[in-house]
Every structure is written in structure tokens, then in C-alpha cells.
Amino acid sequence: MYPSYPHAPVRPPSTRMLTVIKWVTVGVSVLLTGLAAMWVVQLNANVDFAKNYAGMLDDPAKSLATAERNVVIGYVTLAAIALIGVTALLAGLGQQWARVLCTVLLLGPMGVIVYGVVSDGPEALFVLAFLVPFATLLVLWCLPGVSRGLRHKKAARMHKRFSNHTVSY
Questions:
Q1: CA–CA–CA angle 27, 29, 32 (5° rounding)
Q2: In this structure, how many other beta carbons lie within 10 angstroms of the beta carbon of residue 18?
Q3: Is the dihedral of CA 61, 63, 68, 70 positive or negative?
Q4: Strand, helix or coil at 7?
Q5: What is the pTM of this model?
Q6: Distance CA 156, CA 167 (A)
Q7: pLDDT digit string (tens) for 18-67?
Q8: What are the domain boundaries of the chain?
Q9: How many CA atoms lie within 13 A of 122 on its CB side?
Q10: Do 140 and 27 touch, CB atoms closer than 8 A?
């Protein structure tokens, strides 16, 4: 007869949620990096337009300055979106600092989207659709299963690091 236990055995910790969220974030980052790159190309075309047709604009200096400012914002946003994928990969390896950086980087493009809607008015409301993937990823990275996965990965890394050391007296 087998002995009876008052409770079920403890399940080993799972890193499944961390792994899934890591790859979802990388996939979204790759797709949105491509879209952001096309946006930056369009912004550069706006600068060329402001330079070439300055005589047709009401305030050419202001138009050019605004177009150049938007190009800088576009490049910074492009870099942030690309870095989100990189930090997600590092967070998937169990690096807590990468998870924090990933969530902070998610806030940047969200701010650019909200600023664009506020500054451009009601005709730019369709841009709010791009807020959905960033907000979703932000919530997913803050789930308790991700924290458990990070703790398990860190513990496994520490165990591997120190298991080869033996103490001899």
C-alpha cells in the first residue's frame, strides 16, 4: 500500500508565461519596428517637402522646424520599439532589470501616440489603435506569472553558477 499524503506534491515552477510573453513582445516589436521605419521615411519626406516648397508655406521656418522635430521623435520612437524586443529577449533569460527597462520603454511610444492624438485633434483618433499593443504588453509584463518565471530563472542560474563549487577542508 502506498502512503497517503495530506496534500498534493508541489508543482515545479513554470516559466511558460514568461516565455510566451517574451516571444509575443518580440513579435510585436518586429512588426511595429517595420511600421515605425515606414513612418520615419514619411517624416523625412515631410522635411524634404518643407525645404523644397518653402515659398508655398505660410511660415516656412516653423514648418521646417516642426518637420525636423517630428523626425527626431520618429527616430527615438523607432529605437525604443526596437529596444523593446531586445529587452524582452533579455528579460526572458531571467534578467529583472531588462523587464523593468522593457516596461519603461513601452511607455515611450504610448506617450508619442497620445501626444499625436492630442496635438492633431479628432482627425488622428485612428492612431489610438496603436496604443492597444503597447498597453497590452505593459499589462502582460506586470502579471504575477512573469514574476514567478523570472524568480525561477534567476534561481536556476544561481544554482548552476554555484553548483560546481565544492568546499574542501
A1: 110
A2: 25
A3: positive
A4: coil
A5: 0.78
A6: 20
A7: 999 999 999 999 999 999 999 999 999 988 888 877 777 777 788 788 88
A8: 16-162
A9: 0
A10: no
- Which ranges of the chain does DSSP label H, i.e. alpha helix? 16-52, 60-92, 96-120, 131-141, 144-162
pLDDT tens, residue by residue, 60-115: 788 788 889 989 999 999 999 999 999 999 999 889 999 999 999 999 899 988 88
Question: And the C-alpha cell for 71?
Answer: 523626425
Amino acid at 49: F
CA-closest candidate to residue 112, choices 81, 68, 140, 66: 81
What's the number of CA atoms in the CB half-sphere (13 Å) around residue 87? 19
Nearest to 102 by CA among 82, 124, 73: 82
Residue 66: the pLDDT is: 85
The residue that leads in pLDDT, 116 or 90, is 90
- Sequence-separated (6 or more) residues with CB below 8 Å from residue 74: 36, 39, 40, 43
